[in-house]
Automatic annotation (TrEMBL):
Transmembrane annotation, as ranges: none
Organism superkingdom: Eukaryota
GO biological process: cilium-dependent cell motility; mitotic cytokinesis; mitotic spindle organization
InterPro entries documented for this protein: DM10_dom (IPR006602), EF-hand-dom_pair (IPR011992), EF_Hand_1_Ca_BS (IPR018247), EF_hand_dom (IPR002048), EFHC1/EFHC2/EFHB (IPR040193)
Subcellular location: Cytoplasm, Cytoskeleton, Flagellum axoneme
Record's protein name: EF-hand domain containing 1
Entry keyword tRNA-binding: no
UniProt KW keywords: Calcium, Cell projection, Cilium, Cytoplasm, Cytoskeleton, Flagellum, Metal-binding, Repeat
PROSITE patterns: DM10, EF_HAND_1, EF_HAND_2
Residue ranges of every copy of the DM10 domain listed in the record: 56-161, 202-322, 376-480
Amino acid sequence: AYSRLPTVGIGRERLYVNQLSQAELDELSNKRPTLTYGQAKQAPPSDFIPAHVAFDKKVLKFDAYFQEDVPISTEEHFRIRQVGIYYYLEDDSMSVMEPVVENSGIPQGKLIKRQRMPKNDRGDHYHWKDLNRGMNITIYGKTFRIIDCDPFTQVFLESQGIELNPPEKMIFDPYTELRKMPMRMYVTPSDFDQLRQFLAFDKQVLRFYATWDDTKNMFGENRSFIIHYYLADDTVEVRELHERNDGRDPFPLLIKRQRLPKTLVDKAKTFPRCVLEISAQEVLEWYTAKDFAVGKPITLLGRTFFIYDCDEFTRKFYRETFGIADFQPVDVKKPPPEETIPPYNGYGFLEDSLQNCFSLLPQPPRKNFIKMLENDRKVLRYQVALESPNAEDRKRRFILSYFLSTDMMSIYEPPVRNSGIIGGKYLGKTKVPKPGSTTDNPIYYEPADLTIGATVEVFGHRFIITDADEYVLNYMESNAESFPAATLQSLRDHFAPRRAAVQAAESQLADGTGSQEREEIVKQVQEQLKHHNYLSNSSMREAFLHHDKDGSGFLDKAEFFALCERFNLPVSDELVNKKCIKPGAHGLHFYNKIILDGRRGPKQLPNGAFKQTLLTGYYSKGYFIIRAGLG
C-alpha cells in the first residue's frame, strides 16, 4: 500500500507536485551577489486574481460527435449524433449538449450536465490542456471525436502555447441524410393522393369569421364563431367566440373537427343519425374549400352561418389557388341604438330628470360653484300683482325673489287680515322657464327680463311687476355692463320720484336741527321702544310702507298717529306735541332705508332683505322723520 499525494488543494486549486512554487521562484530571482552590488531590491508581488473573477463567463466550445449502435433496425446499423462540448474556465467543469433535431424521436438537449469530468481511474480530471482538435475523448464510456472549435477557443489555446491540430469535417448521420432525399414518385390508380395532400397541406388551416343569427327564434341571439377548414384532410371545425359576461358556459367547440356533408342521398332523410354516423354511402358531396367565400352564407349541420371576413393566409391561398381577389370584409356590427330621452314629466328640475337617463346610478348635475360663491346671499326682490279676470285676485300682492347664486325664483304672498286668502309661500325655489321654452332647449328667466311693468309667466300664472327693492337698482347699476339699457332705465325711472323726495328731505334737514339734538331724540324714542319690547314686531315696517301708496315717502299726521295707536306704540305726548305739532307741519316723512346703530347714512343688507326693524325719529322744521333701524 502507498499513500497518494493530494492533487487538489483548498478551493479546488490544482497542486503541482515536485515543482517550485511561485513564491520560491520569486525568492530565487531576488538573490544576487550582495558584496559587489549590495542588497538586491525585491520585486513587488503580483496581484492575486481569483479564478472565478479572471475566467468568469469564459467558456471553450468544441464541436464533436459520437457513434451509437442501433441493434434493432433494418434500415440503420449505427447512428451519428452531433454534440457540443463546453469547458468552463472558472471552475474547470465541462458539459455536453446535443442540439435538438426536429422529428428525430430521440430525447436531446443536455446530454451530460455540467461537472468536472473524470479522466482516468486515478482521480484525475480533464483539463483544457488535454483538449485539442482531431482527437478522441472518452467520458463515461462514450468516445467523442473533437473535430473543431470556435474562434475564442482557438485564440485562447494558441495564447497558452498549445499547437492546435487542423480541423476535420463533420460526419453526418446516413439515415438522416436518407430522409432528406426527394421522395420517389409513385403512380397510383387513385385520382387523388391523400398522403400527398396530408404532406403538402399539413398544419395549413383556413380561418373564416362568421356569425349565426338566431334572433328569429325565442331567446335567440346573434353569436360570433370562427370556422376552421383543415386543408390536410378537408375537415371543418366551428369554434365559438366568447365575450366577457356573455352568460354562456365556456364550451369552445360548437362543431368538432369532422367532414361535413353538403348533399345527401334521398334515403338519408330516414337515416338514424342519432345512433349512426353518416358515411360516404349517405353523402353525395362533401364541403370543400371552394364552398367557403367571404360575404356569403353557408349551412353547416342545419345552422346557417354568414361569413364576413377571413385571415391573411386564407386570402393568399384563395388568390393563388382559385384566383379570387375579392375579400372585402362585411361590417356585421349593428349600430348602437339611438338614445331617446323620455319627455319631461314636470316633476323636479329638468337637469335632475336628465341624470336618470345618463347612468344607472344617477349623479347630481354639476353646479357653477364660482357663481354660487360670488353671488351668495344676493337676492333681487320684486313686488308683483296677479293678472287674473277675477277682481279679487288682481288686488293680491306678492313678493318675487330672484336668487342670483342659483338663478331660481320664489314667490311669497304676505298675509292680509280679513282678506279671506291664506298667505305664505306661493312658489318654492325653482327655475322658471320662459314661454316657448322646450325640454331640448330650455330658456329660463334672467334678471334682465324682470323690468317694471313686465309680465312673468310662472307655470301658467301671469304676474306683473309693479315695484322692486332699491337693492335691485343698486345691483344693476354696479353691474351695468351685464344688463340691457332698457331694464336699467325702467328701474331708474321708477325710483326717480322716491329718490328726489329723499334728497329734498335731506336738504331740508341739513338746514334744521343740529345733529346732536337729532341723535338725542333718536335715543329717547329707541329707549321707549326697547322698554316696551316692540322691536320684535316685524309687520310694523310693512304697515308704514303699505300706507305710503304713492311712494313719495310722506305720511299724513293722522295716519301716523293711527298706525301708532294700531301697534300700541308709546308715543310721548310731550315729545310729539313739542316737536311735531306745529303750524306749518306738512306731514311725516318715512325713510325706505336701514340705518345701522342709529347713525345717519343709508346702508343696505347684503342680500337686500329687510330684517327686524325699529322706528326712530326726530323733528326738523315741522317734519317728524321716521327711520327704520336694525333691532
